[in-house]
Amino acid sequence: MNEKRLVVACFGLLVAVVLGALAYQFVAPLTVSVFLYYSTRRYHKSLRRLHLPSRVRAVVVLASLAVPLVLLVSYAVVLLAVEARHFAAQYALVELASQNLAWFGGVEKIPEFTPHGLYAAYQAGDLDPFIEFASAHASFLTSLVSNFFLNLFIVIIVTYYLLVDGDRIRAWLLRFDDDAILREYLEAVDEELEAVLFGNLLNVIAIALIAITAFQAYNAVAPAPVEVPYPTLVGTLTGIASLVPVVGMKIVYVPAALVAALPVLLGGDTSLLVYVAGFLAVAVVVVDTIPDLLLRPILSGENTHVGLLMLAYTLGPVVLGFYGLFFAPIALVVGLTFAHTALPRLLGADADPEPGFAANQRRLDEF
């Protein structure tokens, strides 16, 4: 019997090593999937009141995330392309690029971004430099695009099945419970992860609304030459950029300020730059600083320290790369919850006193 148990244990260890190696190869999309699962689980549960099956609710959750994001990115890309073409035509950037970039030579103008305009440019040979550039880097571009869609597919599939089968996974893990330690720990880490990561989603939405309001208010008082273009879009992107560590929202509102200041700088009327400085002050104080000081502590979970959480968001990408933005806060919550719940029990410490009572107030005569 012992020999059979040893064989089964060795086989199980081998399977675990193989699965761990495979998971490590796709650690980034798997981490994003767990992040999205806990960020959207409350939304998935709230749809129960509509009496929808779990699978339908999971599809609704993913669609309500994916469709607005795709529309937002598409809208931003189209606007960026149109505005870039208008700017290049206004300041003759095509001629300047043709003189200084060898592979760009021969391009006389940027074609219109319509099927007819692109086809006419192709017939005229204006697209030849771009086609040659793409052909020379075809392997890299193909690998980049295929990896992106592969990771996106993994994120969608794993998030979907976590939403559908999350309760089954939890029940399977509790089969190995020992003196309720595992149950206590899993329930605590599950609740804290949901609180922290769902709080991030609420933080993004709140900052996006604040940014849209602030940028619209700025445009209402600023002269036309220094208005922020597309304030609703810029505000929404600012909310999404709040997830990015260190630089955060600055990767959106600083370029927006530069775009607003560029016509003034090129036109020579520098007196209007005071409005741009005012826009930066509003963005830094109203959009970036105040919500970070007021909202983040409220939306950062019940037990996780806000400072440690901010360090996790900052240091995670530095150490692990992009996916560290999602992995570090998850690892922090898992580790702190273990230290708070399971570790004292494993070391033989007494259970925590009742919440709301000090350590020296456990008997009547101590009050």
TrEMBL record:
Domain of life from the UniProt record: Archaea
Pfam families found in the cross-reference section: AI-2E_transport
Keywords: Membrane, Transmembrane, Transmembrane helix
Segments crossing the lipid bilayer: 6-38, 59-82, 140-163, 195-218, 238-265, 272-290, 310-338
Signal peptide: none
Topology versus the membrane: Multi-pass membrane protein
Compartments (UniProt record): Membrane
One GO cellular component, as annotated: membrane
PANTHER family, per database record: TRANSMEMBRANE PROTEIN, TRANSMEMBRANE PROTEIN 245
Similarity comment: Belongs to the autoinducer-2 exporter (AI-2E) (TC 2.A.86) family.
The protein's name: AI-2E family transporter
